[in-house]
């Protein structure tokens, strides 16, 4: 299946829920969907289109919102993107669809505070030290580390 065919199938299935769609380069398809459709689109890509490999889930603080991107595929990757509010960054977990999501979601929680509803291990420290302060997320743009002196 080509990038164009994959994109067409996603658009046919989800219509107006596909807020943005592109093929930015060979072997990449990118779709932006609302948070309430993120899991459904990811499941469609993985199960119905047969691209069951999850290479990672990334998160980013875009200041106005938090972005979540599931990278799904083999030789062609479909990036299923969504945006969640910074003050309540929640989206459904993919662990029951793609079990590898468990670790990536925990990493995004530890570093950015994105809550993946349905992941049973969200909130358990994964990347950051056990004594790290609750509610402090080191990859957020508003995080200010405290250093007693400049690092050299």
What would you say this structure looks like, in words?
This protein is of the alpha/beta class and 152 residues long. It has a single domain (3-117), classed as Beta Polymerase, domain 2. Helix content is 25%, strand content 28%. It has 3 helices and 7 strands; from the N terminus they run αββαββββαβ. The protein has helices at residues 3-14, 35-48, 101-112, and strands spanning 20-25, 28-32, 54-61, 65-73, 77-85, 90-92, 115-117. A 5-stranded mixed sheet has the order 1-2-5-4-3. A two-stranded parallel sheet has the order 6-7. A hairpin with a 3-residue loop joins strand 3 and strand 4 (65-73). The termini are far apart. The relative contact order is 0.14.
- Count of helix runs: 3
Report the oligomer. single chain
Q: Largest sheet, described in full?
A: 5 strands, mixed
What is the H/E order? HEEHEEEEHE
- The end-to-end span amounts to 51 Å
* Rg: 17 Å
Choose one word for the global shape: elongated
Q: Examine the coordinates and then state which fold CATH places here, giving the name of the CATH topology.
A: Beta Polymerase, domain 2
Estimate nothing, just give the exact number of structural domains.
Answer: 1
Physical arrangement of strands within the biggest beta sheet = 1-2-5-4-3
Strand content: 25-35%
CATH fourth-tier homologous superfamily? NADH:ubiquinone oxidoreductase Nqo5 subunit
- Please provide the count of β strands: 7
Question: Helix fraction?
Answer: 25-40%
């Amino acid at each position: 299946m080509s990038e164009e065919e994959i994109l067409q199938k996603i658009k046919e299935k989800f219509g107006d829920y596909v807020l943005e769609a592109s093929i930015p380069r060979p072997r990449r398809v990118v779709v932006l969907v609302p948070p309430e459709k993120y899991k459904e689109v990811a499941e469609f890509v993985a199960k119905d289109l047969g691209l069951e490999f999850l290479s990672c889930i990334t998160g980013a603080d875009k200041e106005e919102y938090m972005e979540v991107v599931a990278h799904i595929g083999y030789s062609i990757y479909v990036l299923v993107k969504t945006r969640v509010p910074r003050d309540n960054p929640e989206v459904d977990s993919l662990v029951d669809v793609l079990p590898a999501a468990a670790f990536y979601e925990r990493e995004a929680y530890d570093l950015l505070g994105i809550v993946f509803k349905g992941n049973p291990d969200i909130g358990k420290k994964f990347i950051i030290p056990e004594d790290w302060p609750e509610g402090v997320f080191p990859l957020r743009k508003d995080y200010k580390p405290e250093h007693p002196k400049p690092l050299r």
